[in-house]
TrEMBL record:
An annotated GO cellular component: periplasmic space
Primary location: periplasm
Subcellular location: Periplasm
Alphabetized Pfam families for the sequence: Cu-oxidase_2, Cu-oxidase_3
Region feature Disordered, mapped onto this chain: 450-489
Compositional bias of kind Low complexity: 452-470
GO molecular function annotation: copper ion binding; oxidoreductase activity
Residue ranges constituting the Plastocyanin-like domain according to the UniProt record: 96-203, 234-349
Species of provenance: Sphaerotilus mobilis
Keywords from the UniProt entry: Copper, Metal-binding, Oxidoreductase
Protein name, UniProt field: FtsP/CotA-like multicopper oxidase with cupredoxin domain
InterPro entries attached to this UniProt entry: Cu-oxidase-like_N, Cu-oxidase_C, Cu-oxidase_fam, Cu_oxidase_Cu_BS, Cupredoxin, TAT_signal
Length: 489
């Protein structure tokens, strides 16, 4: 639900701005002269659900994006200039049902709202700072006058707490961008301050005017961010450098990340920006895509090749495109397996193969809630109902039509459906597989495996059913151990 924020109740905002803002309702016909000179009323979002595309009410036409678990910021057109109002402020963001984080963001959410404009638009962005410290906004990837680049100390003074600054420039280059502070960055980005920006190409009739940018049926976007929040607490630890425990898409973790719901045959674009402190190989099942753009712009056609995984390095953006021509529920996730898990202590020893028979019962007499973890791998963790502290999430969770998904973090699904209507983004539910197309238990007889015969006197084949011609070296037990520490997560 979009709500209009009443600035009178806000704290830390200067009185002049407050008086001006409350008279400036977007779309109000009786706008006073004072209001005309005032800021656009800030619009705030209370929901973490994916909002439908914002169809442009005025200005040049474009095909709007859908922000995963996010929304697009409405604007006000003043003398041909698109005016936006960002409010940097503390927010409460639900990471997934069962866990809320105290973050910093914009207009009620982290990440902030997506800003969508068209190539050639003159854009004026008011930024009100309701944080307890100064901030600034850097418009990552944009061509703009140096003084609008948002680097506090270098190109502008920082925006003090309680003050409003204005940025103004022409969106010269179409493409995929983001915004984030360039003031006390380590704190402010670790707290969730970031947002997406899309500059759409101009239209030339039914086509875009850019030879390297096609129109698509669905255009999704999201940012990668990471947090370190101790189970049971709500505020990220800002001093963490690499050892984060919550890997998010738009400040959501699975099962809180909405699915990407598309119609069979749709041309789909997905834009991803990385504001974490490590790279993420983003992987799609069932389809091949091409990288059609970066934060530097559209890629030349000759540079595009099919992939199913694209690595998004720190500070980079990638824009991928494909035809959704296979029906089903296709996993879509970061390929680092510890990035598809939620917060949990890392100091859990590997217990695979350790026989705990009898031991748990004896310990339970002393420690009533004692449970054994991981003697058959960690999959049991997803199904057991361990007592968790308040405000945290199971390490791996989520239930699908065939049982537990054993996932968390950067994971969701692409749902491709024959009957998904054009422009409809609702969740169609789980895929109904045609009969005989699901992997199933084999209950028939199994053929003897084919084995290489021992053909030479010098060949020793420990697996061969034939008698070896030479004595087999006794098996040596090798123990593999991962390096300790978590650098490079
Ligand atoms: Cu990752």
């Amino acid at each position: 639900m979009v709500t209009r924020r009443d600035f009178i109740r806000g704290s830390g905002v200067n009185v002049a701005a407050t008086a001006a803002v409350i008279t400036a309702a977007v779309g109000t016909s009786a706008v006073s002269r004072v209001a005309m000179a005032a800021l656009p009323e800030p619009v705030s979002q209370t929901s973490a659900a994916t909002q439908g595309p914002l169809m442009p009410p005025d200005g040049r036409p474009y095909d709007p994006v859908v922000t995963l678990n996010g929304w697009t910021l409405p604007w006000r057109m003043v003398d041909g200039v698109k005016e936006f109002h960002l409010v940097a402020e503390p927010v409460v963001r639900e990471l997934a049902p069962g866990m809320k984080a105290h973050l910093w963001g914009y207009n009620g959410q982290s990440p902030g709202p997506t800003i969508e404009v068209v190539e050639g638009d003159r854009v004026r962005i008011f930024v009100t700072n309701r944080l307890p410290e100064h901030t600034s906004v850097h418009w990552h990837g944009q061509r703009l006058p140096n003084g609008m680049d948002g680097v506090s100390g270098l190109t502008q003074p920082a925006i003090p707490a309680g003050k409003t600054f204005v940025y103004e420039f022409v969106a010269r280059r179409p493409g995929t961008f983001m915004y984030h502070p360039h003031a006390d960055e380590m704190t402010q980005m670790a707290m969730g301050m970031m947002g997406f920006w899309v500059t759409h190409p101009k239209r030339d009739g039914a086509r875009t005017s850019h030879p390297l940018i096609d129109r698509v049926d669905r255009d999704f976007c999201f940012l990668l961010s990471a947090y370190d929040i101790e189970p049971g607490s709500a505020t990220p630890k800002i001093m963490t450098m690499t050892d984060f425990n919550l890997w998010t898409w738009n400040s959501r973790v699975f099962p809180g990340i909405d699915s990407l719901n598309v119609r069979l045959g749709d041309r789909v674009r997905i834009r991803v920006g990385n504001l974490t402190m490590t790279n993420h190989p983003i992987h799609l099942h069932g389809h091949e895509f091409s990288v059609t753009g970066t934060d530097g712009g559209p890629t030349p056609v000759g540079s595009r090749w099919p992939e199913v995984t694209t690595d998004v390095a720190v500070g980079q953006m990638r824009q991928v495109e494909f035809i959704a021509d296979e029906e089903g529920d296709w996993a879509f996730h970061c390929h680092k397996s510890h990035h598809t898990m939620n917060a949990m202590g890392h100091a859990v020893p590997t217990m695979i193969g350790v026989d705990h028979s009898g031991l748990a019962g004896r310990i339970a007499r002393v420690v009533p809630d004692y449970m054994v973890m991981g003697e058959r791998g960690m999959a049991d963790m997803a199904e057991m109902t361990m007592p968790l502290p308040d405000n945290t999430l199971p390490m791996m969770t989520g239930t699908g039509p065939f049982g537990s998904l054993e996932m968390g973090g950067m994971f969701t699904t692409l749902k491709v459906r024959r009957d998904q209507k054009p422009g409809e983004y609702g969740d169609p539910g789980w895929f109904q597989h045609p009969a005989g197309t699901v992997a199933r238990e084999w209950t028939g007889s199994l053929a003897e495996p084919v084995r290489a015969p021992a053909t030479s006197a010098t060949t020793t084949t420990p697996n061969a059913s034939t008698t070896p011609t030479q004595p087999v070296t006794p098996a040596v037990e090798l123990k593999a151990r991962k390096p300790s520490g978590h650098a490079g997560h």
